[in-house]
Amino acid sequence: xxxxxxxxxxxxxxxxxxxxxxxxxxxxxxxxxxxxxxxxxxxxxxxxxxxxxxxxxxxxxxxxxxxxxxxxxxxxxxxxxxxxxxxxxxxxxxxxxxxxxxxxxxxxxxxxxxxxxxxxxxxxxxxxxxxxxxxxxxxxxxxxxxxxxxxxxxxxxxxxxxxxxxxxxxxxxxxxxxxxxxxxxxxxxxxxxxxxxxxxxxxxxxxxxxxxxxxxxxxxxxxxxxxxxxxxxxxxxxxxxxx
Length: 243
What we know:
Elements: H1 2-10, H2 22-34, E1 36-38, E2 43-45, E3 54-59, E4 62-67, E5 73-79, E6 84-85, E7 98-101, E8 105-110, H3 112-121, H4 125-149, H5 152-167, H6 169-174, E9 178-181, H7 184-191, H8 195-207, E10 211-214, E11 217-220, H9 223-230, H10 234-241
Antiparallel strand pairs: 1-8, 2-7, 3-6, 3-8, 4-5, 4-7, 9-11, 10-11
Helix pairs in contact: 4-5, 5-9, 5-10, 7-8
């Protein structure tokens, strides 16, 4: 399986990291100039309050959360470099979710007018934003499909595969292990599973040598065996969710 994955990559099945065009590079230079450092645990956007036009993650990671009627805040997605999110709700004023830095992160926040000018007035940036939005829809729909139809092992394996591809595609491409800073509680929130259920699944995957579990971290050791459990083709998934 590892040999087949490497063959798929060599044949161009798994996309390499995209090289931004000159216009996009200029846009990201401007992003970095106006970006600010956000410490781990700090809020970027408050659910229900005035929403910015766009938030670009340049380094670190950001968690997106929604609040249930009983007051519980639930993690539903993660952003990594260089993801962008447009948080405005259907009322065109408030934010539909909360955004919290999971690491010390570098982020650029734009108002709605600034975002519209930057994304529509810079050649190549509008296409990049559209592709990033499509990749976000793809990963969430694939995750939801498994949440609705998959067993616990399949759900957990898919999430680990998705995050490995998004954070270290070269390790996946080369068949090397990769490390994810991800707690079992966070996995449970994103997958609709209890922490106990996630713990049992992770124990089984660890016993089979697919992962190694540390406090707050997961080492993915056998990406192709994990993909088998997830019922997913890494190369096809990479084409769908990576830009």
